[in-house]
Structures are given as C-alpha cells and as structure tokens.
From TrEMBL:
A cellular component term, taken from the record's GO annotations: ATP-binding cassette (ABC) transporter complex
GO biological process per UniProt: quaternary ammonium group transport
Entries under Pfam families matching the protein: ABC_tran, TOBE_2
Family from the record: Belongs to the ABC transporter superfamily.
Provenance organism: Pannonibacter tanglangensis
Name of this chain's protein: ATP-binding cassette domain-containing protein
Keywords assigned by UniProt, alphabetized: ATP-binding, Nucleotide-binding, Transport
Gene Ontology terms for molecular function: ATP binding; ATP hydrolysis activity; transmembrane transporter activity
Domain ABC transporter, chain residue ranges per copy: 3-237
InterPro entries: AAA+_ATPase (IPR003593), ABC_SmlMolc_Importer (IPR050093), ABC_transporter-like_ATP-bd (IPR003439), ABC_transporter-like_CS (IPR017871), Mo/tungstate-bd_C_term_dom (IPR008995), P-loop_NTPase (IPR027417), Transp-assoc_OB_typ2 (IPR013611)
C-alpha cells in the first residue's frame, strides 16, 4: 500500500513538531526517515499509524484518506503493522503467544499458526525463548519478539520505530539482512525510523532527512550522500568538509571553482551562478600526494585512527575550514601534505 502525507502539521503546546511535511512512499518501497533526536520521527510514525491525531494537512493510505481535518481513522482501521522502540508486547503471554496472536486473531488454522510462529521465531533467533514471558527477556530480545510478531502478521504496510536500536552490533547486522530479505520477499511497504545513518544507508530505497520538524530531502541513499540539498543534510550524512569557494563558471551540472590556489571542476545543480558558494568535499574526493602534482598543500592539524586508515584534518592556506583527508599511514602533527582533488559537490544556494 502507498502512504502519502500532504502538508502534515503536528503541534504540541507551542511547538510545531511537524511543520508542513509532504512525502509519498510508493507501494513496496523501503523508506527510511532519518534525523537527530527530537526532530519528530516518532511523531510522524504515530500520526501515520493513527496513534496521534494531526493538526493540519492529511494522510492517505493506498489513496484513502485516513487522517484529515475532522477525520481520524482508528489504528486498526488503517491496516498497518507497527514495531515500536518500546516493543508493546503482551506481558501475560509467552514469546510464542505474542507472535502467534495476530495469526490466531486472523483465524489461521492451528497447524499454520504453529508453523509460522516457529519460522518467525527462528528468523529472529529466539526459538529457545519461545516459552518465556517478555519480562524475562533482555531489551534486545523483546525487540526481536516485536519484529517476529510483525513478520508473522504479514502486514502489507509496516511502520518501524528504531526496531534495531537496542541490539548488539552483530545481531544488528544480521537483523538488517533479515529485514532486507523479508522486505524483498513480502514486498511490504516499509517506513523505518532511525537516527543511525549507517542503518539507513544499508536498508533504504529512499531516505528522508527530517530536521526540526521539517523534511529537508527525500532521495536514494547515494543521492543524499553525493548531492545533499543543503548544509544540514551534508553535515548529518557521511563525513567531509565544507569550504567556501568562488564559482568562476557553471554549465550543465558542472562548475569550475577556485579554492585557495587550486582550480577544480565539481558537480552542481543546473541553475548554478558564478559567485561565492559552499563546496562539499567527501574524504574520497581528496587524495594525498607528494608535492609534485599537488593542487593544494596543507598541514595536519589532528588525526585519528579509524581502523584501516587515519582520518586527518588538514589546514590549507586560503580555505576557511580544514579538509578531512584519509591517509594510509599515521601522519605527524604539523606534517605538510600535498593534496589532489577528484571532484566535489557544490551545495545549492
Ligand atoms: N505527547 C507529547 N507532548 C508534548 N511534546 C511531545 C510529545 N511527544 C513528543 N513531543 C515532542 O515533540 C518533539 C518530537 O518528538 P519525537 O518523539 O517525534 O522525536 P524523535 O525524532 O522520534 O526523537 P528520538 O529519536 O529521540 O526518539 C520532541 O521535542 C518531543 O519532546
């Protein structure tokens, strides 16, 4: 089922927690909403699921209005499954009972309920906890029960609020793969909320960046990373440096810029004009080299070992911010380094 938000507004007290949010999630899409703590992610999910009324705009699920001025369909009338950060398990039921519950209420045969419950528990590696109560599980295990219940439900639209937040890293990776596989197999429209960009990149067909109640950009992960729409998105996703440059010419998505002593062609939006602009350089846009062939030279201000490479901030004369550069060997503090640029992205004005 598709989900459409049309100029959605949510107000708590005097705070506009969601401010004019419009987006469309296509049927079968894995759509991730990413943003810092408090930006409104959970509220967005609660509005879609029907747990919270909206204050403006409208929400459509599969073309049917489920929330609008004077209209608020109850959660059970919206046909969406929800996996919460807080699990929402039945405390009096066993793990297996929780997973079986949606199947039983859907009137499945006993043998099918048993089979499907076992499959879903195996998927989340909880088979041996089937007879425990939720209270006797760790937070991460409870989360996996909630996921298994959602898998069992077979909902065609699933909303997930940080479902992997409390898991160990190794289980997290495994659950990401499970989720991807489940998504491919079920083709369920999935709205997934997280503040973890690595997780968003790994799972999403498209990522929406929510910032202070506003939707800044919704695009494929590669586009969000390579062509962020503004500084907030550029700084929130991935790593890199933003420096002020002078655009001397621009045509058909390529701009020639001057930064310090260097000239470089970089990618830009079509209507870029000559003048001052902000250039995003990801670490892979910059190569360290000897003095010969260097476009820029700088001195290492700071470096950190990141496993496999050293990440250095290199101060370059004429630039208003240091460049983040990845180096194979550990640089000495103050070491002089030559740099070559490969490309960059001019942030839209
Ligand atoms: N019931 C409520 N009453 C008043 N304010 C609320 C309520 N629920 C949320 N808020 C406020 O709305 C803002 C957005 O909250 P929300 O839970 O949607 O953020 P979030 O992006 O999911 O954050 P986190 O990643 O920390 O879970 C926050 O400032 C929060 O304090």
């Amino acid at each position: 089922m598709s989900i459409k938000l049309d100029q959605v507004v949510k107000v708590f007290g005097t705070q506009r927690v969601l401010d004019d949010v419009s987006l469309t999630i296509a049927e079968g899409e894995f759509f991730v909403v990413l943003g810092p703590s408090g930006c409104g992610k959970s509220t967005l999910l609660r509005l879609i699921s029907g747990l919270e009324p909206l204050d403006g705009g409208r929400i459509l699920i599969n073309g049917r209005e489920v929330a609008a001025s004077g209209l608020h369909l109850a959660p059970e009338q919206r046909g969406v499954g929800v996996v919460f950060q807080s699990y929402a398990l039945w405390p009096h039921m066993t793990v297996a009972g929780n997973v079986a519950f949606p199947l039983e209420t859907a009137g499945r045969s006993r043998s099918e309920v048993t089979r499907r419950t076992e499959e879903c528990l195996a998927t989340v590696e909880l088979t041996r906890f089937a007879d425990r109560k939720p209270a006797d599980l760790s937070g991460g295990q409870r989360q996996r029960v909630a996921l298994a219940r959602c898998l069992a439900q077979g909902a065609s639209t699933i909303l997930m609020d940080e479902p992997l937040a409390n898991l160990d890293p190794h289980l997290r990776g495994a659950m990401e793969e499970e989720l991807s596989a489940f998504h491919k197999a079920s083709a369920a429209t999935t709205l997934f909320i997280t503040h973890d960009q690595r997780e968003a990149m790994a799972l999403a067909d498209r990522i929406a960046i929510l910032w202070d109640g506003r939707l800044l950009q919704a695009d494929a992960p590669e586009v969000i990373y390579r062509r962020p729409r503004n500084r907030h998105v550029a700084g929130f996703i991935g790593q890199g440096s933003i420096v002020t440059v002078r655009v001397t010419a621009a045509e058909a998505g390529t701009a020639h810029v001057r930064l310090g002593k260097a000239g470089q062609d970089v990618a830009c939006v079509a209507d870029t004009q000559p003048g001052t602009a902000a250039l995003l350089l990801r670490p892979e846009d910059i190569e360290a080299c000897g003095d010969e062939g260097a476009q820029l030279c700088g001195r290492v201000e700071r470096s950190v070992y990141r496993g496999g490479f050293h990440e250095a901030d290199v101060a370059v004369e004429g630039l208003d911010a240091p460049l983040m550069v990845r180096l194979a060997g550990r640089p000495a503090a103050g070491e002089r380094i030559g740099l070559r640029l490969r490309s960059g992205w001019l942030l839209p004005a």
